[in-house]
Design goal:
This protein is an alpha+beta fold and about 150 residues long. The protein has helices at about 5-30, 35-85, and strands spanning about 95, 110-120, 125-135, 140-154. The chain has one domain: Pantoate--beta-alanine Ligase, Chain: A,domain 2 (2-Layer Sandwich). The longest helix is centred in the middle third of the chain and has 51 residues, at about 35-85. The chain is rod-shaped and about 130 Å long.
Length: about 150
């Protein structure tokens, strides 16, 4: 082929390029390269790790909120009992535990103290009730405190 003209050589090069291009595009349509698969796998792994981390945090928050909701319900029930019970001694710390059915199986209890907040010259006294609800979260003791006031007769 030493006697081929430049135009013929260019024409042959162009035809070979077309064939190569068709062959390359057909191969690309058949599948992905190993590098593309590895990059896609890496991206999916990062995305899944982020999603699982977010779900784990959401589950912990939901559990913690459930504990606080249960404590708030128990505190309200106990405070209602203490507000109605005028026989409770003043200045004495009272304590008890909640039934496992009430507390969802979590060890929990309460402490309360009734004290005189303000005494009026009349026969009425304003009493302060301090209530603390506690529960165990594993080995950690959590607590929720609230106060209530009631009017009583001296």
């Amino acid at each position: 082929m030493p006697h081929l003209t430049v135009a013929t050589q260019c024409f042959r090069s162009a035809r070979l390029g077309e064939r190569r291009g068709r062959h390359t595009s057909a191969r690309a349509k058949n599948g992905f390269t190993l590098l593309e698969v590895l990059v896609a796998t890496l991206i999916m792994g990062i995305a899944i790790a982020g999603i699982l981390s977010g779900l784990s945090g959401a589950a912990r928050n939901a559990s913690r909120l459930t504990e606080y909701d249960r404590a708030a319900i128990l505190a309200r029930q106990k405070m209602d009992e203490l507000l109605v019970d005028h026989r409770a001694p003043r200045g004495v710390m009272q304590a008890g535990t909640f039934d496992a059915a009430q507390s969802g199986g979590t060890p929990s209890g309460w402490r309360a103290r009734t004290s005189v907040f303000e005494a009026a010259p009349s026969a009425f006294v304003l009493e302060r009730i301090e209530l603390e609800i506690w529960w165990m979260n594993g080995s950690t003791r959590r607590a929720f405190s609230l106060e209530g006031y009631r009017r009583s007769i001296q």
